[in-house]
Structure to design on (810 residues):
């Protein structure tokens, strides 16, 4: 399980990740995106393009984010693939600014 | 905090040669990422290189010269100075040359770093000048290069970016998503435009799993499939007669040869149903533009060279080359006007040299030599033969010889470096400058150093300057700076470099060769093949001279070639080792073993690093079909032993129907420490050469598997 979307995505869902992913491994629900660990080829292209830094390599996750490995795996099985970029959720820019100021 | 972004290029032996941006803070590299401006690599790296800074700053890095203090192979060393190390090497070499002649010294290297000045040929001028034994490096694509030269010449072929125009794409023995992943978006774009993707592979790889059609083939039988495709397109008149008449030679002879290669014959060899073989040939011939991308694995069996000969005939038969996005892709490296003679300096060679093939290192070190003195000194750089070379037991015995003086330049104390008398610390790509070709796209790259060398590590260029001085060479050629070497590394007057300046390259990090754009590139629309006839040679004129290895892989040396007779028409050579060709052996060792690249390792690179081990597993894994496992009492996760008459290694079993019954898959790249028996898959692989170019035969191996 190499790359993981964490809860920082929640409420923003910029989906910049989807535009760089070569294998359509991103899934989506109303709140955020998830990476399907079966399809992910571990290229890491999504990490630097995420405006809020929500995606990390599994081996670099801090202890309080480890649970997102399992959440990504489970939710990817329950949600549809998103094949192209979507508009961010309302309020995403304000949320991003708040996150980046932290 | 002073932060800067430095543009560089990936050093690895991979087709993609990614443009890399390194973030440097106060002299320390804190992150690497892909350069979003690069039209081919598009801002992504890969599982190997994403954490490159972890490689650079790993606590396993070698930072100082070391001298052996314990028994050979014990890994006990103490620190020495560079002056002591170089003096000792020079003193030993001078004594060996005086006693036995320079041929008692053997260099050993490949593409541990692929940069033009630090890579394949960096040591060639020195060893050519000394008159040491020639290292014939046929690791990769050597059968392919010989077969290509015999058929269509050293052409870059189809631009990988032109695949967006293809309508029928065959990835033949190529797991794109693991080993060429930046090509994938171009294939995906073609599919969105209606292209069909076919993957031919014994394993349902990541790539095969996403294909429109996965054709699962028995290892080492690809040539039978290609010949049957030739048979069908000729018999059913799916050929392009006008193209054949104008731009090929030997059609009538090929047609006569192909008559016996029926789909029924190919089905018996490959295990593919007859109707699928017929369907593949028909679809390929009638869905233009059709393109084939061959992977290195296509050559790794007894008939690997003729396999590439047969595949290289297909586009000429159906006129695929007429179309943008039609034809064949092997190595676009041939588009790069590299100044090879200046890098290798074959003019410095004595008239006669002894050639030792890299796959026969174990034999050479244990006294099995064609002629000349025993090897007294081995100099290894850019390579880790203990992990990656056949006849591991012989190699281990050879490296353990007390009278062998071994020097290894490395990033880490590899399985090979452990046996060294002197270990020298080498820089990583972030600490050195280089200029880079690619064998997977058409962009020339420049690698700016991002940080100062760590410890006392030096680039290979500097290593060979120091050695040349210590060997009392005074030719100024050997003491050029890296910048001077880069300036003379390319033929800048060549049209392919028109409009590209080194100064600009340093800033952008990459530049597309000055060729037609991917939307126009059809290099053989009107023939113009770089062969003796200028045509696609179904019947090869070069074959008359017999088997050979291209001089690029042998320090530029043209003498002492293999020379066995070569049939000028493509033909089928069955695997050396499979149940039908060697039933006696198959009684004891009934399973065909293949050893593809691991998804997380690059050959043995990264086999020691935690991020990649977390993915590949710290211990060697082997994939078995559930039926083959059940009949042996093996369950998922069982420790198993894989063996044949050559040797054995241990692994943990993974069970999957992604492999066909009768085939086992042992990804390569794990180190000895990742194996309970202290061996790698190459303990069981065969030292036999393929038919052309002395390529290895790693997909042509029988083994038995039991519980360990």
């Amino acid at each position: 399980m190499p790359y993981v979307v964490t809860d920082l995505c929640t409420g923003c869902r910029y989906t910049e990740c989807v535009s760089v992913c070569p294998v359509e491994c991103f899934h989506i629900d109303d709140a955020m995106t998830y990476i399907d660990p079966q399809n992910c080829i571990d290229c890491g292209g999504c990490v630097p393009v995420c405006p809020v830094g929500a995606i990390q390599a599994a081996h670099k996750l801090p202890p309080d984010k480890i649970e997102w490995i399992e959440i990504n795996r489970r939710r990817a099985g329950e949600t549809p693939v998103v094949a192209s970029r979507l508009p961010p959720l309302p309020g995403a820019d304000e949320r991003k600014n708040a996150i980046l100021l932290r | 905090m002073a932060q800067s972004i430095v543009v560089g290029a990936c050093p690895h032996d991979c087709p993609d040669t990614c443009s890399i941006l390194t973030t440097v803070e106060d002299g320390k590299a804190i992150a690497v990422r892909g350069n979003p401006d690069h039209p081919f690599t598009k801002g992504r790296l890969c599982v190997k290189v994403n954490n490159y800074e972890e490689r650079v700053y790993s606590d396993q890095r070698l930072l100082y010269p070391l001298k052996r203090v314990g028994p050979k192979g014990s890994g006990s060393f103490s620190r020495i100075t560079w002056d002591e190390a170089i003096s000792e090497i020079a003193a030993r070499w001078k004594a060996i040359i005086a006693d036995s002649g320079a041929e008692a010294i053997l260099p050993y290297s490949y593409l541990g770093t692929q940069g033009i000045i630090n890579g394949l040929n960096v040591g060639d001028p020195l060893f050519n000048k000394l008159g040491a034994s020639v290292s014939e490096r046929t690791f990769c694509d050597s059968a392919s290069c010989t077969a290509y030269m015999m058929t269509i010449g050293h052409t870059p072929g189809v631009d990988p970016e032109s695949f967006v125009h293809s309508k029928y794409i065959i990835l033949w023995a190529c797991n794109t998503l693991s080993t060429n992943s930046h090509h994938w978006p171009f294939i995906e774009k073609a599919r969105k435009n209606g292209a069909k993707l076919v993957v031919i592979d014994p394993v349902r790889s990541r790539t095969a799993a996403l294909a429109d059609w996965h054709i699962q083939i028995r290892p080492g039988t690809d040539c039978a499939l290609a010949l049957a495709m030739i048979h069908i397109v000729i018999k059913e008149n799916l050929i392009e007669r006008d193209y054949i008449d104008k731009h090929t030679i030997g059609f009538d002879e090929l047609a006569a040869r192909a008559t016996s290669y029926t789909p029924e014959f190919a089905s018996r060899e490959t295990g593919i149903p007859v109707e699928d073989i017929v369907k593949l040939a028909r679809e390929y011939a009638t869905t233009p533009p059709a393109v084939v991308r061959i992977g290195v694995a296509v050559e790794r069996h007894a008939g690997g060279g003729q396999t590439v000969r047969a595949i290289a005939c297909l586009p000429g038969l159906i006129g695929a080359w007429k179309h943008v996005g039609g034809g064949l892709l092997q190595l676009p490296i041939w588009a790069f006007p590299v100044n090879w003679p200046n890098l290798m300096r074959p003019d410095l060679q004595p008239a006669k040299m002894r050639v030792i093939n890299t796959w026969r290192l174990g034999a050479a070190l244990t006294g099995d030599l064609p002629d000349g003195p025993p090897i007294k000194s081995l100099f290894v750089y850019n390579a880790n033969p203990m992990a990656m070379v056949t006849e591991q037991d012989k190699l281990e015995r050879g490296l353990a010889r007390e009278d062998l003086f071994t020097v290894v330049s490395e990033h880490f104390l590899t399985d090979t470096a452990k046996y060294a008398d002197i270990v020298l610390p080498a820089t990583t790509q972030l600490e050195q400058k280089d200029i880079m070709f690619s064998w997977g796209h058409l962009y020339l790259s420049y690698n700016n150093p991002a940080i100062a060398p760590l410890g006392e590590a030096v680039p290979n260029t500097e290593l060979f300057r120091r050695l040349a001085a210590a060997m009392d060479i005074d030719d100024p050629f050997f003491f050029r700076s890296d910048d001077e070497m880069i300036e003379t590394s390319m033929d800048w007057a060549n049209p392919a470099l028109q409009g590209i300046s080194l100064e600009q390259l340093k800033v952008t990090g990459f530049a597309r060769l000055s060729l037609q754009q991917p939307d126009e590139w059809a290099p053989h629309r009107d023939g113009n093949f770089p062969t003796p006839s200028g045509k696609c040679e179904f019947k090869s004129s070069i074959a008359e001279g017999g088997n050979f290895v291209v001089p690029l892989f042998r320090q530029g040396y043209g003498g002492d070639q293999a020379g066995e007779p070569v049939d000028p028409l493509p033909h089928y050579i069955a695997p050396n080792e499979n149940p039908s060709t060697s039933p006696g052996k198959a009684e004891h060792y009934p399973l065909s073993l293949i050893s593809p690249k691991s998804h997380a390792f690059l050959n043995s690179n990264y086999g020691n690093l935690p991020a990649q081990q977390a993915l590949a597993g710290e211990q060697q894994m082997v994939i078995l079909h559930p039926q083959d496992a059940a009949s042996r009492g093996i369950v998922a996760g069982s420790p198993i032993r894989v063996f044949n008459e050559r040797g054995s290694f241990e692994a943990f079993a993974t069970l999957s129907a992604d492999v066909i019954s009768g085939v086992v898959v042992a990804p390569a790249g794990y180190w000895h420490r990742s194996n309970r028996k202290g061996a790698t898959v190459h303990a069981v692989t065969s030292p036999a050469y393929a038919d052309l170019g002395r390529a290895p035969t790693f997909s042509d191996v029988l083994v038995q598997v039991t519980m360990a």
Remarks:
- Residues 492 and 604 of chain B are 35 Å apart (CA to CA).
